[in-house]
Amino acid sequence: MKAPFSIFICLSLFLVACKTEPKKSTVAEAEPSQSILEKIASAHGYENWKAVKEFHFTFNVDRDSTHFERSWIWKPKTNQVTAISANDTLTYFRKEMDSVAYKTNGGFINDRYWVLAPFNLVWDQNNFEYEHTESVTAPISNSPMQKLTIVYSNEGGYTPGDAYDFYFGDDFILREWVFRKENQAEPSMTTTWENYIEIGGLQLAQDHKKPEGGFNLNFTNLKVVTE
To answer: In terms of domain of life, where is this protein from (predicted)?
Structure first.
């Protein structure tokens, strides 16, 4: 007759143990909300950039019957850049530039911006002021889009004080932009962002065209080497 009593004791202890075990929270911890800069960068694959060892690209400008190109190999972890043109090849570290490298680096900064501007929104965020407008009419397509305007500081850099207007939809992928030199009211250049390709988890626009035609700033030989 002792067995049932023992079973009752064990069962009681089990129930007490169950009742006293702390409950795990079922409410997920809220993640910090992303800024508009981070949302645009993330939509273009920014989270995959940390694995990039080398980024290769050729910057092309096709204007009517003329063609211009120059190629780059960038190793972001060491900030080594190789510039390749029809006449010369130059390799330099961006932290150790002589006058020749500094001049060449101006071209690199320009060309890289055209293909990686969504990431520059994060990289440069301490060097510009920005304003986000949720509903505007895009200048080329005349479609309703969101707009992000950034104005760079007047201090330092290759083009101080310049402004950019980025146009994008609810997916935060860039579709059009306007460059305004020295933050002037009138556009200096307006182009599309189109013909996207995914390489190494990065969303890269291959073509930038003017609305009037006869101009295509485009990228070829895109290559991403990851760890």
So the answer is: Bacteria
